[in-house]
Amino acid sequence: MVEELPSVFLVGPMGAGKTTIGKLLAKQLGREFLDSDWYIESQTGADIAWIFAKEGEAGFRERETRAIDELTQKPQIVLATGGGAVMSAENRAFLHQRGIVVYLNAPVDVQMARTAKDKSRPLLQQPNPKQILQDIYSIRDPLYRQVAHIIMPTGHTYPRYMVNQLLQQLASFDMSAITAPNNRS
After folding, report:
1. How far apart are CA 72 and CA 51, in angstroms?
2. Angle at 82 between CA 69 and CA 17, to 5 degrees
3. Could you give the 3-state DSSP secondary structure of residue 121?
4. How far apart are CA 154 and CA 19, in angstroms?
């Protein structure tokens, strides 16, 4: 079963657990784990906050689209994407057509708890981060749902248990959902 699975791409808001779940899932599947933000940082030699500061969000998103295009062409990986990767229709198409997309859906309160002390998230360096998260969630949630093949709620159970649940869903995944024409983006 595992050998036949295409790559698995994790999408969702910041603090949803994409990196944690991704690493555990990759280990269970015996696959390489990649993170699109880390990839961008390794390619540029600069961290995401610096790229945002120097190039703005638009400059970062251009870099992100190039990275998503490259990474989604790699065979049999587990990829964690940045929270905003779904904002681009091009990224949504790359993800949806090249692998199994899992939306890790974290409510805003879970996101707040997990990101409250993280100073490396440029979009949260504002006076009211909870409102920012709520605004972002209301915009991005429909896009995450649009691109996803599997939707998993997060923040209510242990990561290892979530990975076991996800493995069960992957075992019964209908591969035609990937190869079917995509008019969802």
Report:
1. 22
2. 130
3. coil
4. 13
Edge-to-edge strand list for the sheet holding 150-153: 32-35, 77-80, 7-11, 99-105, 150-153
Question: For residue 79, what are the β-bridge partners?
Answer: 9, 34
Residue 30 CB neighbours (<10 A): 9
User: Are the CB atoms for 184 and 147 separated by under 8 Å?
Assistant: yes
Q: Give me 138's structure tokens.
A: 């209301």
Beta 32-35 vs 77-80: how paired, if at all? parallel
* Residue count of the chain: 185
- Which pair of structure tokens corresponds to residue 92? 């949504």
The model's pLDDT over 47-103, given as tens digits with 9 standing for 90+, comes to 888 898 899 889 999 999 999 999 999 999 999 999 999 999 999 999 999 999 999
Q: Is residue 116 packed enough to be buried (19+ CB in 10 Å), middle (13-18) or exposed (0-12)?
A: exposed
**Helical packing angle, 108-115 and 129-147, nearest 10°:** 120
Residue type, 175: M
Q: How far is CA 96 from CA 16, 34, 130, in A?
A: 19, 17, 29
C-alpha–C-alpha distance, residues 68 and 79, integer Å: 9
The first and second tokens of residue 127, run together, are 């006076």
- The amino acid present at 182, given as its one-letter code, is N
Strand partners, 150: 102
Report whether 149 contacts 178 (CB < 8 A). Answer: yes
User: Can you give the pTM of this predicted structure?
Assistant: 0.90
